[in-house]
What does this fold into?
Amino acid sequence: MVLGLLLACVGLGFALFFIAQPQDLSDIQGYNPGSRDILRRDFRRLLQTSLDRSYPVTITEREINTWLVEVMGAKQGGLLAKEVSLDGVWVRLEDGRAEVVLERRVMGKPFTVSMFLQVEQSEDAEGIHTQVKLHGGPYHEYLPFPTCGGRFGKLVVPQGFLLLVMPSFKNLAAQCPDEIDLGFEKMARIKIEKGRITLDPRVPTRTVTGISSQ
It folds into this structure.
């Protein structure tokens, strides 16, 4: 029992150490000021035009982060507003998933927390249904549960831990309802790849092959 408690304390110590270390954001396109686009794209108009004219649109990671810097106006509110600042919101696009990162400063020290997102789509007689899953898939292909929810600092945490930070991400989503509606609710197909996301309003055509008898 003593050995088990000792191992648990050591594991907790390592976890807290990695949580206190902010993740490296330098690989995110648009994180450094010099790598951002000079002109910000109007996503609301871009998505609405894509839907009206029925053509796909591709948005890069750099374009998303340039847009976030200018329109989010991120700041920390509540009782800890004097001790905690929200310095930025960033999106990292990988094959099959996106990671939304909150960059904070807690009592003068940098701190990051993130959430993984995956888009799952299904089709039935009523049409195509899109669901945004709040996880980044399993830790290992042979261990489907628990799923990776996000990162506290450098530590990848299970999905259940997102309950601790869910209000912050909901507040961010509330600042861009039109873009979320146009991009995720109304688009027929969504594909997330390394460094870019493709949104396509065109519904896939169905091909029915019949068997003819002679």
